[in-house]
Amino acid sequence: MPTLQLDLGSRSYPICIGPGLLGRSDIIAPHIAGKQVMVVSNETVAPLYLDKTLTALIGFHCDSVILPDGEKYKTLDTLNTIFTALLKNRHDRSTTLIALGGGVIGDLTGFAAACYQRGVNFIQIPTTLLAQVDSSVGGKTGVNHPLGKNMIGAFYQPRCVIADTDTLNTLPERELGAGIAEVIKYGLIRDAEFFVWLEKNIEALRARDPASLAFAIERSCRNKADVVARDERESGERALLNFGHTFGHAIETGLGYGAWLHGEAIAAGMALAADLSCRLGWISAPDQHRIEALFVRAHLPVRAPAQIGSEQFLDLMAVDKKVSGGKLRLILLKGIGQAVISADFDPQLLRATLDACRTA
Amino acid sequence: MPTLQLDLGSRSYPICIGPGLLGRSDIIAPHIAGKQVMVVSNETVAPLYLDKTLTALIGFHCDSVILPDGEKYKTLDTLNTIFTALLKNRHDRSTTLIALGGGVIGDLTGFAAACYQRGVNFIQIPTTLLAQVDSSVGGKTGVNHPLGKNMIGAFYQPRCVIADTDTLNTLPERELGAGIAEVIKYGLIRDAEFFVWLEKNIEALRARDPASLAFAIERSCRNKADVVARDERESGERALLNFGHTFGHAIETGLGYGAWLHGEAIAAGMALAADLSCRLGWISAPDQHRIEALFVRAHLPVRAPAQIGSEQFLDLMAVDKKVSGGKLRLILLKGIGQAVISADFDPQLLRATLDACRTA
User: Fold this and answer.
1) Predicted-complex ipTM score
2) What is the average pLDDT score of chain A?
């Protein structure tokens, strides 16, 4: 039944993708060890899908905690709200946390599971395209700090991921686009054939054609699972999944979390990285134009916001985790489908990219 | 040079015990991978030992963050103070955190290291007896929540532990006693020969006889390292190290953190557990008296504070992590040097222990 498996030895887990999965006890129940379950969701998703989720959990002792919606709540304070709910309801070490929502809920819930009583089980039920193709898979969890995004967290794997594609029917347009940004990412960094497929099918994705979405989600998860299985803790190859993120995080931090959606910031970040790759002579101008054109057709930004100056942008980038030993490393392209991580670029060209790729 | 080694495969690390270790670069420097170091200490310990610690770190880029002193600061808020210091000073993934202080500093720093950028290196320099014989070894890190002690944390191992016995010369009497409580614990749970040694040498320990202290620290660390090597994540045997802790945590939570020192609460907790073990017929009355007498000679409490009623005490115990599937499990004695974990006891006898072992 699982669509695919993330292979991590004793921490391997299934990823189930498809319509109508949410209410199915046969899919979720085998991954719950104890009797207690805490569903963590938010004010947007809970009214839509909490009841349906609970119908699959009959026989368990279920509590829920409903958080406010938005990236700006991905904080230590919100994390503490989850801990308080767990302790008030006397959840013990055998409890299972279920993340029902998008990337913020998944990151918060996973990190809460990693820390509660030094680690309890959790299950991901991603309800946004972005979470289904990216954040729910691979075990990166955490919260933001006012001085930097995702600076506090843990590598902590779920017991399973259940991606019910029906939940995408209620997804706002902008969030659909944000998810498509991460889908395009896989094409750019390691799957040129998928990039060509996306060039043919981007309008179908935006129109939520079920078959196209299902194909894109599965292909994205396969790419992600492949990379994570080989490099769980990001000592090498996994860093390529952060393509566009150093630029994107600078935008998110500079504007304040939530002004742009994560996927929107990452789209602009990838466009900037492509611009720099072109200035370096690593990709051709036609390829750079293909990349930019695909983002534009996906209704995604390809420029950084004007209000962040180049100096501030560089400062914000310097805080990013990809800095090592004081040197800024970036993920850049040597071609479509071929990303590399490199500190070996002319800082003047980075400056030129930042000066050029700015909204008017 | 290391006194002993904690054997955990790729995460093995040395434990160095002895006088004059604090200023020695040859001991600490090999365990620092990058160039950046953040020393975390508190207002009591920093004036005494921070400068000496820094002399061993010449050549590294060192920052420090000085926290207020006390168990009541072992919170998510204080943790965030460490994250802010790391981010303000632009510490990257290659940084090393150094915990310079007692158990609270070690637990906070280790947990900060576990979470900062999803995990950076850290080193333990315990400066209290309790931290040297217990909390600095084994990788349990975390913070308290108003509803329960150590409810939020991670298993995260240091790169090395440096226990400079000279630091015990400045330790207040009460804290020395709190450390002795944990030393006695090893005798009670798994080392009857050590218990007999303690019966002969308890006054020498209280008088800080260097040879006696060095012997007790090394023997305690050996016991701890043995247990942790066999059961790092506390799926079995390691739970025995929590002897006295379910009772003790109830005292600490009931009185508010910091009213009693952790070791004092644990001493009373062990005395209560011994009382219950005796009521169950698992240990003899003479052995129970030997245990109580040793705590009394060590100037440690053997009764719970009167202000926590038995009902409240049971409630507080129920929150403890050792509850599994709704059933309270306790660590009890089948003899001196032989602890067991059990849910198989008459609740009436637990009630009788709580009613009887109370200060007037």
Assistant:
1) 0.89
2) 94
**CATH fold group of domain B189-356:** Dehydroquinate synthase-like, alpha domain (1.20.1090)
pLDDT over 80 (residue A60):
yes
Interface size A-B, in CB pairs within 8 Å, comes to 100
In chain B, domain spans: 4-170, 189-356
The token duo for B353 is 């222990």
Residues of A in contact with B118 (CB under 8 A): 140, 142, 153-155, 233
pTM assigned to the model: 0.91
Residues A147/A121, Cβ–Cβ less than 8 Å: no
- A92/B324 Cβ within 8 A: yes
List chain A residues with CB under 8 Å of B92.
321, 323-326
Catalytic pick among B175, B182, B252, B264 = B182
B188-204 pLDDT per residue, tens? 999 999 999 999 999 99
Is A91 annotated in the active site?
A: no
Alpha-carbon gap, residue B105 to B114, rounded angstroms? 14
Cα distance from N-terminal residue to C-terminal residue, chain B: 50
Question: What proportion of chain A, given as a percentage, has pLDDT over 90?
Answer: 88
pLDDT at A354 over 90: yes
C-alpha B271/C-alpha B224 separation (Å) is: 21
Q: Could you write out the DSSP letters of every residue in B255-313? A: H-TTSS-HHHHHHHHHHHHHHHHHHTTSS-HHHHHHHHHHHHHTT---SB-TTS-HHHH
CB contact under 8 A, A87 and B34: no
Q: Say yes or no: domain A173-356 is CATH 3.30.930.10.
A: no
- Give which of B78, B140, B150, B152 to mutate to test A binding, by max A Cβ within 10 Å: B152
Write the class of the CATH domain B4-170: alpha beta
How much of chain B exceeds pLDDT 70, in percent?
97
